[in-house]
Amino acid sequence: MTVRRVAVLSDTHGHLTALRAVLADADASGVTEVVVAGDIVNFGPSSAAVVDLLRECGARLVRGNHEVELVAPYGTPGMPEWLRSSVRYTVARFTMEQLGAERRAFLAALPDRLELDAATLVTHGSPRHVRDGVTESRTDEELRAFWNGHHALTAFVGHTHRPVVRVVPPAAEAAEGEAVRRFVNVGSAGFNLDGDPRVSYALATPGPSGNPGDWQVEIRRVAYDVEAGVREFDNGYRDACGEYAEVFSRQLRTGRHYFGPWVRASGGLPEDEVLPSLRRFLAENP
């Protein structure tokens, strides 16, 4: 009998070289299913090819915040002005045009969650919200709130680009017999931000009890040809916005966060100051 072996990925973000390495590792590990917990596109240079590869291999996909907030409204009457014209979203527009209408419609129609069994959920941030982040620093109380009434015992998530497994005990005032729950943040199959440039995914096999929600989980880190990943930006992306190509190339090489700190530091700047501020940030943060 074939043992069920599930590769749970997240945050591929249009990085084809990294995704191919993860899928090769999963295949060598005997994986029978591939599931992706959102943020399939944007930031990276090869979003269209990433979507095509995941569809070809029969992966089950859910939406992340990039699919919800950028792909779904793009080209619709409800498309926000910032997405239509802001320099901050130059890369998003490059990505949306690269994807084309058919892929955008496919991504926009994906579910926001799916179940691996009756007690196992796959979603992007948490059962509560697509932008919730399951991290090492979250308190148990915060993580209990993330379930938002959902019955699952195990949830596979992404969003933070930092893999971690958090076991969440019941609250002190919980009824007797309340179950321990677990979040498995699989990190990113596109680029991690924990100081380790290797990408990651979760390899899950049914646990010894055979009960729903019981999984043996291994977080696998996968080395790949980072410089080949950097060269992907030469597909027109670097011409569209060289500063953004440099930001994300540095993240690939170092496993450190450049984009988020700059976004927070540059909030509120007028449009004509955005790229100069990014150039200064890059010069000050090699």
Automatic annotation (TrEMBL):
Q: What is this protein called?
A: Calcineurin-like phosphoesterase domain-containing protein
* Molecular function as annotated in GO: phosphatase activity
Describe the family membership recorded for this protein in Swiss-Prot or TrEMBL: Belongs to the metallophosphoesterase superfamily. YfcE family.
Cite the Calcineurin-like phosphoesterase domain residue spans from the record. 5-204
Family matches, as Gene3D superfamilies:
3.60.21.10
Q: Which residues form a coiled coil?
A: none
According to the entry, what is the taxonomic lineage of the organism?
Bacteria, Bacillati, Chloroflexota, environmental samples
InterPro entries the record matches: Ap4A_hydrolase, Calcineurin-like_PHP_lpxH, Metallo-depent_PP-like
GO cellular component terms listed in the entry, alphabetical order: cytoplasm
